[in-house]
Amino acid sequence: MATERKALFLFFGGTGDLAYRKLYPSLFNLYQKGNLRSHFAVIGTSRQAMDDDKFRAAVRKSLADSGNRADSKEVSDFSSHFYYQAHDVTNTAHYSVLKEAAEKLDKKYKLEGNRIFYLSMAPQFFGTIAQDLKSQGLMSTNKDAFNRLVIEKPFGRDYDSAKQLNDALSKSFDEEQIFRIDHYLGKEMIQNIEALRFGNTLVESLWNNRYIDNIQVTLSEKLGVEERASYYDNSGALRDMVQNHIMQIVSLLAMEQPVAFTDTDIRAEKVKALRSLRVYNVADAATNFVRGQYGSINDQPDYRHEDNVPEDSTTETFVAGKLLFDNYRWSGTPFYVRTGKMLADKFTRVDVVFKRPLVDIFAFPQSQNTPLAANVLTIFVEPHAGFSLQLNAKTNDAGFSTEPIKLDYLVDAEKSKETPEPYERLLHDVLKGDGTNFSSWPEVSYAWKFVDQIRRVWDLQEPQFPNYTPHSMGPAAAEELIQRDHREWIYRLNN
Ligand SMILES: NC(=O)C1=CN([C@@H]2O[C@H](COP(=O)(O)OP(=O)(O)OC[C@H]3O[C@@H](n4cnc5c(N)ncnc54)[C@H](OP(=O)(O)O)[C@@H]3O)[C@@H](O)[C@H]2O)C=CC1
Ligand SMILES: O=C1O[C@H](COP(=O)(O)O)[C@@H](O)[C@H](O)[C@H]1O
């Protein structure tokens, strides 16, 4: 039975791509499930002039585009909770109009003063908005009500800018009121990492450097930059994917068992893990991280000839790297990560590669047996959700030889349809005030400190771009990175 939550949502950037494509359909899902019902209202803002009816029609269209029937009574009831207010976030005087609208809706829908401020717009405005929300009296003063600030990525472009932003936000909101979105933390199988590790003696007892040889995290994208080049070219794969999503996944894989399954305890363990992550010096950053930029193939232009990309761009569209933790659990067990655009396929997976048995008793002198393969536990995050465990077993015949076999669990298509979208989960968490699946400031800051060192080294060197063929798994350097350690990527093309 769903618990109805009461809140006023204020979406800054309420006419933007993210709001229409992800946020409103997610709110509708929560409405259908009963987490939102009569006691909620939404104010969408942006600079353009628009009345409530036009805004509601745009919301209904966004629901239709995401597969809902735009003419249903439920959609029309839902959209009747939406209001529009033209507002320039840089104009302090405009906030008083917003305040009036908020107070009116609060009374009308009996929202008890609960407010969620969602900043779905360019990050240069985050600090100003947070400051004006407080100074212009938009934050609820009801002592039993909540004020929550939801921040989209990117959270800074290095440690210094992230700290500056965080200091600005902290003047108006406490850390527990700030929800920094990382949509990978809303994915079913990323959340499943904790269940897999801490719900299974079999797994957790082996989850350390005595039994695990290495862990591989791959976030592979098939598309190029599409229409987001003006953002992406100023960011690159290291800032766009590694600093946030990959570091979050790695910290879930590396952390110790939390005292309890609460946001405070989980975040504390993730932070502890990130504190043990070795921050590279110049020489180690140069050897342990490699970058790439995609070239052209057939009609597909290379990255430098995509719309809005400068012809001499040195922005990386691919990163691979090795991360090392200096702690008792992980010392000597590397985490290899890679991500890129225009790769062979769109998928996310984690491969946990176990050490081979210390003695291979099947490899006696006259034996024809191939050496035992490593056990590999794969967590399939997307497009299909599931796990696979590769073991060695006897071949099914009269002789005695071994072969690798797989125990597979894949979430079936029907069940997958019921899986909430990441933004639905995360908005629900914001309503509940559960910060577990959001990045805390200490996590963000350790991640930036790690990534800044790599960026520093790369900024000193002119890369030889382009250096990988579209629809491959990245540049040769990514293969060399892991082969140098006498290992190989578990996911390879055609396996
Ligand atoms: N789109 C996506 O898939 C993803 C987006 N994000 C992040 O979400 C945020 C929003 O992205 P997205 O929706 O794509 O951006 P858009 O450019 O589509 O939307 C920006 C919104 O901000 C409004 N806006 C711009 N300037 C002002 C201003 N001065 N005052 C008031 N409103 C203003 C725009 O309306 P107007 O110009 O009419 O004022 C528009 O509603 C960004 O931080 C982005 O990095 C993160 C992950 C994915
Ligand atoms: O945050 C981002 O993620 C997307 C990939 O997300 P996914 O859920 O489709 O795997 C990426 O394309 C984008 O560049 C990045 O900003």
Automatic annotation (TrEMBL):
Active site: 245
UniProt: substrate binding residues: 183, 187, 221, 240, 341, 346
InterPro entries membership: G6P_DH, G6P_DH_AS, G6P_DH_C, G6P_DH_NAD-bd, NAD(P)-bd_dom_sf
Binding residues annotated for NADP(+), in chain numbering: 47, 88-89, 153
EC number(s) on file: 1.1.1.49
Enzyme class, UniProt record, top EC level: oxidoreductase
Keyword flag Ribonucleoprotein: no
The family this protein is said to belong to: Belongs to the glucose-6-phosphate dehydrogenase family.
Function noted in UniProt: Catalyzes the oxidation of glucose 6-phosphate to 6-phosphogluconolactone.
Name of the protein: Glucose-6-phosphate 1-dehydrogenase
Record organism: Levilactobacillus fujinensis
